Sequence to fold (306 residues):
Amino acid sequence: MRLRSLAALALLLTLAGCGYPGDTRPPSLRLPVPVHDLAAVQRGSKIIVQFTVPQLSTDGIALKDPPYLELYIAGSKFHVKSDKPLAYDEETATPFAGQTVKIGVKAQNDHTQDAGWSNIVDLTVVPALAIPTEVEAKAVADGVQLTWKSPDRKFVVFREGPGEKTFTRIGEADARTYTDSTAEFDKTYLYKVQTIDPATTPPAESELSVEAPITPLDKFAPAVPSTVTAVVGTQSVELLWDRNLEGDLAGYRVYRDGKMIGESKDAPSFSDRTVERGKRYSYAISAFDRLNNESAKSDPVEVQIP
Fold:
């Protein structure tokens, strides 16, 4: 009996030492997940490609090193180097001019293995578009007006404003001029213009023009007051006119026989109580803004005091 007990105890200890094997998994191939946000555009004589570099493998493991990135344009292969999350690459467009090319990316591991293609982009390649030239910016009452020269007729306008470090797209133009009505006086802006070809998808782009700097100053008077009427009252002349709509309007000035006799800062009206019986008077109205820019005088209106 004692020998049996010792044998049973030895068997239990052996089993306890060996334990039970857990689930076994094959080693990870560390295949980068495929790129999913590939985008491409033609700018001048370059094809520009951008996409997010995969950070995980297909089994959800973080990649220790950036994957090897192969870019394909119409079957031609290019290596893309990127140590940033967003890959950016430029390739010469000239060999593909006049073609609609397919563009794709493969992300590979150290053994040149991949998990498949990225999304595929179709790009129509055209001869390089002309860069707008002689871009000029000038202050106008509505903001900043841009003009430029180009043989083309479809453009995009970019602006860098105060405190900004990059240019932002602010609008499109179907002619060789554009007015930035959001610009403010006494602030410095930089503008660039770019030609686009809306017949391609996405639209082909030219290189950006040179910068056009400006600090617009407000030297623009309000509009001339209109519809001035004069009504003879009891020992007075009551003047009325249409209200001006300028945001920086400060008021109106009233002229009688060419001399200023008063101002109205609250309403488009004025009462002249210094008239004399039997005399004839001629009245005109001007508008002025907060910087004292004054409009021309309105057409005169005349009254006879009985």
